[in-house]
Structures are given as C-alpha cells and as structure tokens.
Write a structure and sequence with these properties.
The complex is a heterodimer. Chain A is an alpha/beta fold. Chain A has a single domain, classed as Methylmalonyl-CoA mutase (TIM Barrel, Alpha-Beta Barrel). Chain A is about 50% helix and about 5% strand. Chain A starts with a helix and ends in a 9-residue tail after the last helix. In chain A, about 50% of the residues are buried. The model of chain A has no long low-confidence stretch (mean pLDDT about 95). By secondary structure, chain B is an alpha/beta fold. In chain B, helix 1 links the parallel strand 1 and strand 2. In chain B, strands 2-1-3-4-5 form a 5-stranded parallel sheet, with helices on both faces. The chains are: A alpha/beta, B alpha/beta. Chains A and B meet through helix 4 and helix 17 of A and helix 1 and helix 3 of B.
C-alpha cells in the first residue's frame, strides 16, 4: 500500500468511526462542551491522526536532536548529557538581603543565579530619587552603584556561576556594574558567563519598563552586542523575551510571533551596524513563558526552535550552526497564580515546569506559591526549587529526548503555531516593521485584546480557574509575609550617600562628560564609556540622566 | 437620559504592570461608562489634576509593585485639598490583607485583589457614580 492509499483508507475509517461509534456515544452522552479550546482559545479537535501531518515530512520538520531545524532539541543528547540550569529569579530589599537569598538558593542546589531588580532600578533611578518613593526593594533588589553590586555578589565567585539579570532600559549600566564588580573580584571578563535581558522591544510591547525612545534604545542594545562579542565573549548580551508578552495577556501564538519578530529585528540592527551575523548571533538567547496548557506550550518551544533556525540560516545567512540555535530560559506563568487557595499554585507550577522540560528549555525558573501576594518567602521558594529537582531526578521525563515528538496532536499544534507566527510576521512587515507596529500600538492592542477575552472567558465561566470561579472555598489564606524593612532602606541610602561623598569628583565629572559626548556621536559605542563612569562611581540615576538628556524619553500610545 | 458615569483609571508610581488596569478600563467602558486612562508612571499630583480636569466621578488606582501605601492615600489627600473630596477612590493590585483597613481608613473606598470578578468592580463604580451624580 502506498502512503496515499493508506491515507485514503484512514480517512474512510475515521468517517465511519465519526458516523457510527462517535455518534452513538454522543447520543448516550454529549460532550462536556460545544467547543474545546486551549488556554489561548485555540480550537482543539476530538482526535488527531496521521492525516493532520499530511504533506509534511518528519525529516524536514523535525530533524534529529542537535541538527537543523532543531525541533526536537538543540543538543544531541539533551538532558541525558546535562540537565537544564535551575535558575531562580530572586531579589528584594537591599543588596545585603538579596545576597543572603542567593546563598540560601545555592545551598539548596540551584545552579545559576537570576537577579530581580526593583522598580526604580529598572527605570534608571537611584533609590533616593523622588520618583522612587515607596518602591524601594518591593519587586526586586535596589542597585544604584557599583558598591551595591559588590555587596550583592559578596562571597559568590562569579567566575564559577552564571548570572542572569532581568534589566532592560538601563541594561548597559547594570551590566557595566557587574563587569566592574567582577574586575574587583579579580575575575577576567572573558571568563564571565551570564545574561542581561536587554530586550527593549518587548518593554514597549508588554513589560513597560522603557526609558528612551526605540531608536536610541536599539542603538544601546547593539552597542552591547558589539562590546560583548569583543570583550565578554561568553556573555549572552540579550534574552529575547516572550515571557512578559504572555504575562501581559498574549496567547501562545502571539508570544511566539512577537518574540521572534523582535529577535529578527535585533539581528537586522546588528547587521545594519556592520556586524557579521555570526559574530553576535551565538550570544542571542531567548526566554519563554510556560503556561497552563501542557501541549500548546511544548509545541510553542518546538516551533520557536524551528522558525529561528530557518530564519537565521536562510534569511540572515548565518553560516555557523551555533548561530541557528534558539537557546531558551523558561519561567512558569506568574499570571496563572491565584491568591485563592495559594498552595494549589504548587500544582500549577509543576505542570507548567513539565511543559518547559518537555519543550526542551535550557534553564528554568519555577514560581513560588505565594507570589500572587508578594516576593516569595524562603519556604515557598524552596518548594519551587524542589519542584524542578523532582522533575529532573524523579519523574523520568529526562531519560529520553523530546519524549512527545511524533504525537499527532503535538506535531499538529507545532505546525499551527508556526503558521500563526508567520501570519503575524507578515502583518508586522505590512505595518513597516516592529518599531512602526509599536508606534501604531498594534502589538500592544493585540495583547490587550487577548487579555480582555481571557478575562471575559473567566467571567462567563467558559474557562474554569480552580479556586477562583469554581471549587471556591471561604477561607483566609495563610501566607507568611515578607516585608522590606526600613533598616534595609537605610543601609541602601547610607551607602549611596557615602559613594557620592567619597568618590573622586574630577574623575567622576570627566567620565560623565565623555559619556555625554559618546551619546551624541552616533558612531561611538557607549559601552566602554558607561563602564568608565561606573568605575568612577557614577550612580545608575546619574548615568541614566545623562542619557535621558541626550536621547529623550519615550511616550507610549495610550490604549486599552 | 442619565449622565454617563466618568471614571479615571490610573497607574501611580513606577509600576508597569498594566494588564489589569486595561482589562478593567475596558469592562467599565463596555458597561457604558466614560473611561479615561492616564497611562503609566503618574504621580498622585498628575492623577488628581487629570481627575479634576476630566470632571470624573471616581478614580481607580492600580498598583502591583507594592508602593500602594505610599501613593494611594496621597491621592485622597490631594483630592480633599483641591476641594474634590467627593470623587470616589478605589484601588487594586497586589495588596496585602493587612494593608486594606489602613487604606480604607485613609479614604480609599474599596480595594480589589487578584481574582476579583469584573462584575463586582463594575457594580462598585456604577454605585459610586450614581451616588455622586445624585
């Protein structure tokens, strides 16, 4: 029998099954819903078969693990060789508070660090700025100077552990502080491993921690690509992030599409600077959400790898296979956590983390059950880390590569998500590219529309969220509170005052003047000048003020 | 025909989490209210100025960063100072249970936490708007 004979035979059998067996069953008991959909409201069929994969060859679409197009994973042995990096996003209060949390996490077996900064730091303000009122240390750690960074990593050998930093608009300044801190620890820059998020496009689209207008920000990003390739070769100078796009309300397909569209925009800007694509492409990394819908999420990771490999090789002409790899961090969906019956969040996080692992992520953060309330307490964060350790060591899912590959449903979903991404790429191109689409508010509106639809589905009980709109109990949840103390605030502002008092004023002024000149010169790379300013003990706020003056400040289109 | 209820939805402080505020803005609009959204990074002064300029019946403040205790009461205080104390103020976001009585004492009429139904929020603003209009 040929393939097409087999297909015809299967089609006939399925028709018979639908008309007979299924109809009889439906008469006896109708299905629970008229339409079944994923978390992203994507319709799901009753059954998937080989017919859903028709005209698509596995060889081209899957490849072998570690080979183009990397659908099944970027490494030839995946987790049989090395487990993912267990990297818990952490930060609150002062540098001292967070340093203590880092050491706690390392002592419990985490294998990489990940820094959460507070709101003022994310927006390039010092802790004592008027704009920072009430925001110190609540969402992350405050870092205003090189001295803070030194305290943050005191007693941690940054030559041995990799560090990821969620910092965007002022990423270059915070990175310079990390490099300055490493220099003072005596670790050569060439040995440093880590990541700065540095993905400004998704800030305009979703996370909203922007400072400067898009063009100036993109220039700063490319400055870090160029500087990193030369001076800090093992550092990931960007983490192109779908996570926040998803948290803001996007569907899985939108997360995939907007993230990869942003990624390609960075590649274009790098090439336009005159950089060879292979000189920086290997330092581009990614960051995706791991949400509730197990199969849809796994499919998203697989589709992402396939699209990126194809675009890097065929559209951008990257020759080095390492430039084709989509290496990704994953984090479980913060937005899925409920304030009601918070312990149940442990189960949600477990399933989401499973999706990231079955999706082949390179590193993972698991949320803590109390995060609908606060920055997590120690017990909650330990359980979250243990969740990853159970997946790694007890569940058995790491024993083979891409264990769900070949599932009719999963492969069909992977294809569908890929097609959806390309439809969005076309729409964005029609609007004039990513930055034009942001200026027009297109991407922001698409995300807001999805967020609203999702909430309506919950309101109308078309979507059940356990403990929120069904299976509700009347109880006051007990969550041990974690509060930032006044003592931490004082430690931070005292250190900041001391830095300003004792630094060499002349050196500081010279570095600020030189930085301003570099900002005004479009051919200059700002990164070495920022590093010089950081070494001269210029603070984050001071450096960002120079840049605010040079570049102006972004004003976003208002929409909802 | 009754006058449309006017609501200012505002994001005080540096917090950039705007998913919730936008969803609620849209729900209020769909319920027939006039909604003005301030956008991000508004100081209490900015918010009060906008509320008076726009002649709103109520303000919805959204903050998920933990700065609510520093910012929400200031909005109420400034409204009173500007003789606009009749504008109803409600807040929402990641707000610990123990802060809710303090915010209410400071004049914030209602505090909505995660998982609150849109119906409840819409009902609150409908009541607040018609009470003020009367």
């Amino acid at each position: 029998m040929t393939d097409s004979d087999e297909s015809r035979d299967l089609e006939a059998r399925l028709r018979k099954w639908e008309a007979g067996t299924v109809q009889d069953a439906l008469k006896a008991m109708p299905e629970r819903r008229k339409e079944f959909v994923t978390t992203s409201s994507r319709p799901v069929k009753r059954l998937y078969t080989s017919l859903d994969l028709r005209n698509k060859t596995f060889k081209e679409r899957l490849g072998e693990p570690g080979e183009f197009p990397f659908t099944r994973g970027i490494h030839p042995t995946m987790y049989r060789g090395r487990l993912w990096t267990m990297r818990m996003f952490a930060g609150y209060g002062s540098a001292e508070d967070t340093n203590k949390r880092f050491k706690y996490l390392i002592s419990h077996g985490e294998t990489g660090l990940s820094v959460a900064f507070d709101m003022p730091t994310l927006y390039g303000y010092d802790t004592d700025a008027s704009e920072a009122k009430g925001e110190f240390g609540t969402c992350g750690v405050a870092v205003s100077s090189l001295d803070d960074m030194e305290v943050l990593f005191r007693g941690i050998d940054v030559g041995k552990i990799s560090t990821s930093m969620t910092i965007n608009a002022p990423a270059d300044v915070i990175w310079a502080m990390y490099l300055g801190m490493a220099e003072r620890q005596g670790v050569p820059l060439t040995e440093l491993r880590g990541t700065i998020q540095n993905d400004i496009l998704k800030e305009y689209e979703a996370q909203k921690e922007w400072i400067f207008p898009p063009e100036a920000s993109m220039r700063l990003v490319v400055d870090t690509f160029e500087f990193g390739a030369r001076e800090v070769p093992q550092w990931n100078t960007i983490s192109i992030s779908g996570y926040h796009i998803r948290e803001a309300g996007a569907t899985a397909g939108q997360e995939l599409a907007f993230t990869l569209a942003n990624g390609m925009e960075y590649v274009r800007w790098g090439i336009d600077r005159g950089l060879k694509v292979d000189s920086f492409a290997q330092r581009l990394s990614f960051f995706f959400n791991a949400h509730n819908d197990l199969f849809e999420e796994i499919a998203k990771y697989r589709a992402a790898r396939r699209i990126w490999a194809r675009e890097m090789r065929d559209t951008f002409g990257a020759k080095n296979p390492r430039s084709w790899l989509l290496r990704t961090h994953a984090q479980t969906a913060g937005v899925s956590l409920t304030a009601q019956q918070p312990e149940v969040n442990i189960v949600r996080t477990t399933l989401q983390a499973l999706a990231a692992v079955l999706g082949g992520a390179q590193s993972l953060h698991t949320n803590s059950y109390d995060e609908a309330y606060q920055v997590p307490n120690e017990k909650a964060v330990r359980i979250a880390l243990r969740t990853q350790q159970i997946l790694a060591h007890e569940s058995g899912v790491t024993n083979t590569i891409d264990p769900l590959g070949g599932s009719y449903y999963l492969e069909a979903l992977t294809d569908e998500l890929e097609e959806e991404a390309y439809r969005y790429f076309d729409r964005i191109q029609d609007l004039g590219g990513v930055i034009a689409a942001i200026r027009k508010g297109f991407i922001q509106q698409e995300i807001a529309n999805s967020a609203y639809r999702y909430q309506r589905e919950i309101e109308d009980k078309e979507r059940i969220i356990v403990g929120v709109n069904d299976f509700v109990v009347d109880e006051q949840p007990e969550v041990e509170p974690l509060r930032v103390t006044q003592a931490s605030l004082k430690a931070q502002t005292d250190r900041l005052a001391r830095v300003r008092r004792i630094r060499d004023k002349k050196k500081w002024q010279t570095s600020m003047d030189r930085l301003r000149k570099a900002c005004d010169d479009p051919d200059a790379n700002t990164m070495p000048l920022i590093l010089e300013a950081v070494r001269a003990r210029a603070t984050l706020g001071e450096i960002c003020d120079v840049m605010r003056e040079a570049f102006g400040v972004w004003e976003e289109p208002l929409l909802y | 025909m009754a006058k449309k209820i006017r609501v200012l939805m505002a994001k005080p402080g540096l917090d950039g989490h705007d998913r919730g505020v936008k969803v609620i803005a849209r729900a209020l609009r769909d319920a027939g209210m006039e909604v003005i959204y301030t956008g991000l990074r508004q100081s209490p002064e900015d918010i009060v100025e906008a509320a008076i300029q726009e002649d709103v019946d109520a303000i919805g403040l959204s903050c998920l960063s933990g700065a609510h205790m520093a910012l929400f009461p200031d909005v109420v205080k400034l409204l009173k100072k500007r003789h606009a104390g009749d504008i109803v103020v409600a807040g929402g976001g990641i707000i610990p249970e123990e802060d809710i009585p303090k915010l209410k004492k400071a004049g914030v009429k209602a505090v909505f936490g995660p998982g609150t139904s849109l119906r409840d929020i819409v009902a609150f603003f409908q009541k607040a708007g018609s009470a003020k209009g009367a």
